[in-house]
Fold this sequence. Notes:
Chain C is mainly α. Chain C has helices spanning about 5-25, 40-70, 70-100, 110-125, 125-130, 135-165, 185-230. In chain C, helix 2 packs across helix 6.
Amino acid sequence: MVYAHETGHFASIGFAAVDAAIELDGLERRYGERVALRGVSVRLAPGATLAVLGPNGAGKTTLLRVLAGLLRPHAGTARVFGAEIPDERWKVPAQVGYLGHEPLLYRDLTARENLTYHARLHGVDRSRVREAIAAVGMERRADEPLRELSRGMVQRLAAARAVLHDPPLLLLDEPRAHLDPAAAELLEPLIGRGSGRTRVLVSHDVERALGEADVALGLRAGRQAFAGNPDPDAVRELYR
Amino acid sequence: MVYAHETGHFASIGFAAVDAAIELDGLERRYGERVALRGVSVRLAPGATLAVLGPNGAGKTTLLRVLAGLLRPHAGTARVFGAEIPDERWKVPAQVGYLGHEPLLYRDLTARENLTYHARLHGVDRSRVREAIAAVGMERRADEPLRELSRGMVQRLAAARAVLHDPPLLLLDEPRAHLDPAAAELLEPLIGRGSGRTRVLVSHDVERALGEADVALGLRAGRQAFAGNPDPDAVRELYR
Amino acid sequence: MYSKGLIPLAGATVVTLAAAMALVFFYAPLDADQGFVQKIFYVHVPMAIVSLCGFVAGGIMAIKYLRSRDPSWDMRSYVAIHISIILGVGVLATGAIWAKASWGHWWVWDEPVLVSFLVVVLLYCVYYPLRFSIEDRERQARYSSVFAIAAGAFVPLNFAAVRMAEAYTHPRVLSQTGGNLPGEMRLTFLVSLLAMTLLYVTLWKLELTSKHASMQLKRLKRKLAEREAVAA
Amino acid sequence: MIAAAGAILRKDLRLELRTKESVPAMTLFTLTVYVLFHFGLDRDSLDGALAAGVLWVTLLLAAVIGVSRIFAVEREQGGIDALLLAPVDRTSLFLAKAAALFVFLVAVEVVAIPAFALLLLGPGLAGMLPELLAILALGDLGIAAVGALVAALAAETRARELIVPLLLLPFLVPVLIACAQATEPFMRPDQGPEDLGRWLALLTLYDVVFVLLSVAVFDYLLED
Amino acid sequence: MIAAAGAILRKDLRLELRTKESVPAMTLFTLTVYVLFHFGLDRDSLDGALAAGVLWVTLLLAAVIGVSRIFAVEREQGGIDALLLAPVDRTSLFLAKAAALFVFLVAVEVVAIPAFALLLLGPGLAGMLPELLAILALGDLGIAAVGALVAALAAETRARELIVPLLLLPFLVPVLIACAQATEPFMRPDQGPEDLGRWLALLTLYDVVFVLLSVAVFDYLLED
Lengths: 240, 240, 232, 224, 224
Ligand code: HEM
Ligand SMILES: Nc1ncnc2c1ncn2[C@@H]1O[C@H](COP(=O)(O)OP(=O)(O)OP(=O)(O)O)[C@@H](O)[C@H]1O
Ligand SMILES: Nc1ncnc2c1ncn2[C@@H]1O[C@H](COP(=O)(O)OP(=O)(O)OP(=O)(O)O)[C@@H](O)[C@H]1O
Ligand SMILES: [Mg+2]
Ligand SMILES: [Mg+2]
């Protein structure tokens, strides 16, 4: 197990025949009558990056939230590290780091208090908090309530929160929004390709996302436009 | 005056000797003890674009909020279309469109209700609301409460709100965040260079911002690092 | 699927109801000090008992829903509560009439049984806004079930509390195991209770059947619309 | 589980200390009702059933204020999502929220009950302190458990502010009856416990039923 | 200015209709206080000064709830920034918020006053309707004006929930006295106006002073 932990590739040992970090098959999700996702099928190998592309309202955030176990699929299957969502959902959370549109931090608590809270929730050692704050370059502002920080600082802390428990899977919804170029580089080892984690990356910066990705998924009005290695035409078509 | 209105270039007619849309001189702003801006001096001609660059926490949002009249400067002078802030602040708002980190729209109202409300506040004809909704491509979702829309859709509506009253000056704080590439293009005539408006553009996409800008302002920890036409070194230095 | 056995059940209900009616009017003796008004007892009390049992049953069906995640259990629970509320309103109405006749007031506040029953009915009235302010079917079922379970547990607790706080005027027949009811009254009462129970079950089945049918219809319509959309 | 509940509770208490959103509003409410009664009554003081009733109904209404806010910060700042993302079962969340409510209620009572004794009560409270504390503890526990459950039930519905009191108040009628009945004998001039055991037993039963029930069903709430 | 105030008011009323955040809480509060009193009193009904006092103190406390929420949505969803960006002077905002409070109070009273008459009041209300309406209108106006001012004062402070009532209640003491005194004669068994003119004059004076004062000072609030 130590070995598995070190290489990351065998991280799925213990689950029978799991060679995909994420497996979606005919996934569907509605809000009331509106279909937000339908017939999404894709596989992602452990350690790889999936870029999710699509216009506003295509269902990208919805997909991430389904994968995170925050929304329940209405049809089809979704497996994360072999655990079916939502039935085996309780296996998922500790393995997932989620960085979304909202920072999911309390505005009236300081950075340190927020992260300490999350460390306790995840049963992670408190020394990780100091490390995480340092890793996002926020040591000097760690003891101010979040409402007094700039938007980009809050985004850094949200990233620190997402990786605090060292999750093997990262769900990233426009993670670079609000980050300055230096911060984006600083966070690369945490949430970038260099992190060695399996990643699902939603981004509107198409070029960059495709450059980072092993597999791309195109969504349009909830339907899968392409999955795999898209040609430029397909991508252009996606936003038309 | 009709002439002035049409060309936009003489929009400042009526103020004595105003040939700058924005004039900052030794601007300073603190939050409590912390200096968020100090010694910022810059001029921007009507119709031109000022790119504001700087790392997270540099004071970019603070600068925009001062220009919008939302924050009072603590020292130095700031003039917008010749009106001094904050003393002649009442002249400013109708001329400013602000698109910031927060959409400034009510989550429980629909797009149409939100924009109609702003149209009433600005004394703008209600037909503008339909136009604005169409211009950001949201006709089909205009009657749903905002909390049911995707983040990018909300951002589009925030842009529609910012330009609803056709302001000569736009203050844009990462306006492209959350917008898909097609939406970004769609909004170009509203908030882009093509809009013909004077713009102050905060962005972390340095290349693109410099490409769009006539003048660039570099901020670092609230101090002005450069103003004017920066060399690449200065920009690199900024984020170091 | 719910219509199975509905017709014999309905038949039995009608027969028992008729029998109860006959017993009430022609067999049971006239009450010595209340006179004819006392006949309302045979509607009022069975209705109260059935309605309260229906609430508890709704809670049990809700447990089944949470166990099985089978939406039909949620439907059953919903309909059970729905009909119990209707009967509950009936209890309040008949009780009020009886109260007016025998106590001279439509309502007395210091009578715990009345107040506690009102509290139960009011609590269950909140079930509707709670249920229908949630759009997602699955979540609606889950939240409604949690409510039904908590409220179902609340019903007996509430009555325990109320019974402990001594009652003054409201009669306590069942608690004395009906011991002081004359034999004829007792038989009439038991038949009425059976009739009321059957009526409840029949209404429940009927409502389920019609709900099921209209849902089926909606589903077909949606399928059709989708097919048209695809064709277009 | 306990560790996670502790983390959530500490966070809630820290937020309350910092923003002061619930306890002051609750306390103020009870105090004003007592003041109102103080001046509204012809008599100088209350005793017996009336005193007990006023005391408990007021505390109950204060609880409504607390309950309707107990999930507000999670809803507004994404705390629920963060919790669902952590390997924390819903039971911890329930325990934490119920504990927070309990603490808030105790904080309110620390001010409200002396104020009540001062403004309204005829007989002194000193002689009945242990019993009163037992009643308060059991009552608060029931209110906190049902309050957390109701808050979670209402958290995701529209017209929340309307649904919370409509659900909570009926649910708490047995607590009200038991607490008022248990306190009543102590508030008579000839103080003395009477049926205390019976009412405490009922309260205990209520608490056990609703704590267990809430723990059992809480898992189905707050999700998606 | 009126147009802008109208726009803000319409928006506030629409939001309240949709989210039901304030009026239900306010109404529920008054109703429960009346029910409490109904059971809390030994007598069947109230009259005279006591009745007037209970009526008005309760309405005042309900107003506290409304006031503490009147700027909540602006604070949370950036409405204040949006307003400051529009060519709308603060006076419009004041007028709109005061009008919204006024409407909320009227909505509460439509339910609360009949409930009061039913539950607590000895003498009927029918005979005094016009006078009562006048008193209510003037009283509500004063509460609304001071309420909007206090809400704006507290909007940007920490521990808002604590500051609103602490500021509001003292400010409203004159309104309370005037309204209670004006209503009192009507609530006596031998109904009849007495000094009504004097109290109405006082109320009018209060309203005028505070509306003008608020309009004058509102410009200095809410900014930066
Ligand atoms: C609005 C008025 C009334 C309401 C809401 C009401 C409600 C109820 C309820 C809920 C029960 C079932 C209680 C239980 O099983 O413990 C009940 C039982 C009963 N009620 Fe009423 N009631 C009302 C008026 C009356 C009146 C006026 C009488 C007769 C004078 C009456 C006689 C009875 C009797 C004999 C029972 C059976 C008692 C028992 O099972 O313990 N009720 N009523
Ligand atoms: N309300 C506030 N109270 C106290 N300090 C604040 C407040 N708002 C901003 N600051 C501080 O002022 C400085 C400038 O913040 P500002 O939001 O202007 O940065 P920014 O350049 O917009 O950064 P970003 O790129 O992250 O958006 C930061 O140090 C920030 O912490
Ligand atoms: N809570 C909700 N209730 C109802 N509809 C919703 C809700 N959340 C999202 N939707 C709808 O579901 C669809 C997909 O939304 P989603 O947020 O997944 O889009 P997205 O791809 O993330 O878009 P963006 O790029 O703008 O973030 C949209 O039509 C949106 O309006
Ligand atoms: Mg999204
Ligand atoms: Mg910023």
